[in-house]
Amino acid sequence: MIHMYQIQCLNKISEVGTSRFNANYICGTDVQNPDAILVRSASMHEMEFGPELLAIARAGAGVNNIPLDKCSEQGIAVFNTPGANANAVKELVLAALLLSSRRIVDGIEWLRTLKGQGAEISKLVEKGKGAYVGPEISGKTLGVVGLGAIGVLVSSAAVSLGMDVYGYDPFLSVETAWGLSSAVRHAQTLDEIYSKCDYITLHVPLTPDTREMINASSIAKMKDGVRLINLARGDLVNSADVAAALESGKVAAYATDFADDTILGAKNVIAMPHLGASTPESEDNCARMAALELIDYLENGNIRNSVNLPAVSMPREGSRICIVHRNIPNTISRFSGVLAQAGVNIENMASKSRKEYAYTILDVTGDVTANAAQAIDALDEVIRVRVIKAAN
Which positions ≥6 away from 231 have C-beta within 8 Å? Predict the structure, then answer.
């Protein structure tokens, strides 16, 4: 009997993504007791999750709207879509570089005040435009903090625009490094970025270490007249400290996708209404990627791009047992012992850990009875067990 998977959409999800689900899936906003949830911005912190829920996929990068700790404790895999919106954010960063330099926004707003001046407008423009002069970005130095999918694209684009680029990322992966322009200089410390760069753009996740990393102390280390861009997370910046630096002229301009009451009243701020990933192409890419992640997990147990569980995947070989468990020594041998007693042979295995959690895939032969799965589930270190039977 074919299992019908129930997919609940908490937001409007692009049809480019939902069309990936075949006739074995029921997908919609009114689905009850879902096997998986697709979400964009809806807050899930107050939701109760049923025992059927196996996975949540966020069609986007940030997962602040999802209770990760609760999901991990219940063995629910949480996916995001890193890189799917990278080009959209990159293009907005390039726009922010220009907007923070050339005083374009202020100039447009001033020009609107000339409505009704008739033939005098041209003369008034020539007389007043000097107040909106700003520097070119070519030949200036850009500091890119965070060299993930977006940071790499921004770095390469800035190089092509004639900027000198410094990149900082203590966790730079080998795979990402291959995509980075050879012209990008590797900064060893944040202080090197602060002291050398005319422009600084942030592309890091919000963690206890990065929260309010831009503050009075870090700003003091920057060049006078630095221009800051934050299209990553609002809380990476202490708004009051940036507002004070804008008022003093230490910071020449601040472009952000995360407005708050302090920033909206500050001098030389370009505040945008969270437009980073707001393109039809980005929404399509995120939806497609999120749907494919759920399909591979539900049908094969493979994990790619999870934010709370380790990445584990391998080709299917017959029946498969998928186990979310705590990262405790000798756990795998206990699984083997239980299955051996049940007459089940392990043909192939993959297992990885991520901090206190681990995930194991076992491809097996033999009759995987409910008793065998229940025996594994009864182990103290096991959070969740799922058996995916071989297709007939």
Answer: 89, 92, 93, 96, 201, 202, 203, 255, 256, 257, 276
